[in-house]
């Protein structure tokens, strides 16, 4: 595994280079996922990739997994802090695959639904379908996207130290991760302790509970090929 310190801006440029170097880039649609807990801000990195990709001649479409959650009556049936429910019931991965990922398969229609349900109002967004231009790149962000066999060409995982994750996550969004399953199958990983302070020593997490993250503290996923960020 290759480890290197890197700024967020440089990370976006490197990932844009990686995307444009993928097999079939410019000739087919590409699906890229930026995975990570909300505290790791995967949406910010996905947003930051749009302009570098545009400069490389690759139009991008942003989609957030937060807009493909199941209704609150389903995902919150066991409360907000149950790790099994968070893993299995929150994301409507069937709708995400059907409405966003499958249409971008080779020979697909390219007709994508950018959002399904507003997580704040728990109502359908009624968003219109959009057609991806040839050679376009889908940039999907959200937690727990890995290990679901989603059809993706590239995955990026943003990891936080357990202390940083606890510090950045509101108490009402934290969950006991003792049973939360580790995630597998990422291509790139970025580990972050304190933003803008490489090498900072984070404080210890609170006892008994860690935030909604992609994996339990102390559990490593299957080996990524590169790891970016701060220790």
Euclidean distance between termini CA atoms: 15 Å
Quote the beta fraction.
Answer: 15-25%
Number of separate helices: 6
Number of strand segments: 13
Task: For the largest sheet, list the strands in their spatial order.
Answer: 1-13-11-9-2-8-3
Uncertain runs with pLDDT below 50, 5 residues or more? Answer: 193-231
Broad structural category: alpha/beta
Oligomeric composition of the shown chains: single chain
Radius of gyration: 17 Å
Overall shape: globular
How much helix, percentage-wise, in residues? Answer: 10-25%
Order of helices and strands: EHEHEHHHEEEEEEHEEEE
Write down the overall mean pLDDT. Answer: 79
Q: How is the main sheet built?
A: 7 strands, parallel
Any overview of this molecule?
By secondary structure, the protein is an alpha/beta fold. It is built from six helices and 13 strands. The chain has a seven-stranded parallel sheet with strand order 1-13-11-9-2-8-3. A two-stranded antiparallel ribbon has the order 4-7. The model is unreliable at 193-231 (pLDDT under 50).
Write a compact overview of the structure shown.
By secondary structure, the protein is an alpha/beta fold.
Task: Provide keyphrases for this structure.
globular, two-stranded antiparallel sheet, alpha/beta, single chain, 7-stranded parallel sheet
Map the helices and strands.
Elements: E1 2-4, H1 8-20, E2 30-36, H2 42-55, E3 60-64, H3 72-75, H4 83-88, H5 93-101, E4 111-112, E5 117-118, E6 123-124, E7 130-131, E8 137-142, E9 154-160, H6 162-168, E10 174-175, E11 188-192, E12 210-211, E13 226-229
Parallel strand pairs: 1-13, 2-8, 2-9, 3-8, 9-11, 11-13
Antiparallel strand pairs: 4-7, 5-6, 10-12
């Amino acid at each position: 595994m290759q480890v290197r310190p890197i700024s967020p801006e440089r990370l976006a440029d490197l990932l844009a280079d990686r995307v444009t170097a993928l097999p079939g880039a410019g000739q087919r649609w590409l699906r890229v996922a930026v995975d990570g807990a909300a505290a790791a801000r995967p949406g910010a990195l996905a947003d930051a990739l749009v302009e570098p990709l545009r400069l490389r001649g690759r139009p991008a479409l942003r989609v957030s997994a937060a807009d493909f959650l199941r209704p609150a009556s389903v995902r919150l049936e066991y409360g907000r802090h149950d790790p099994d429910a968070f893993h299995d019931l929150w994301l409507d991965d069937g709708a995400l695959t059907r409405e966003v990922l499958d249409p971008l398969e080779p020979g697909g229609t390219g007709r994508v639904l950018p959002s399904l349900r507003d997580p704040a109002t728990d109502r359908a967004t009624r968003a219109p379908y959009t057609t991806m231009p040839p050679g376009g790149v889908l940039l999907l962000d959200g937690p727990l996207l890995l290990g679901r066999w989603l059809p993706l060409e590239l995955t990026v995982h943003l990891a936080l130290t357990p202390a940083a994750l606890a510090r950045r996550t509101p108490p009402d969004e934290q969950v006991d991760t003792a049973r939360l399953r580790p995630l597998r199958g990422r291509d790139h990983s970025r580990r972050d302790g304190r933003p803008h302070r490489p090498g900072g020593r984070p404080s210890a997490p609170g006892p008994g509970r860690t935030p909604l993250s992609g994996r339990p503290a102390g559990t490593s996923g299957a080996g990524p090929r590169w790891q970016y960020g701060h220790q």
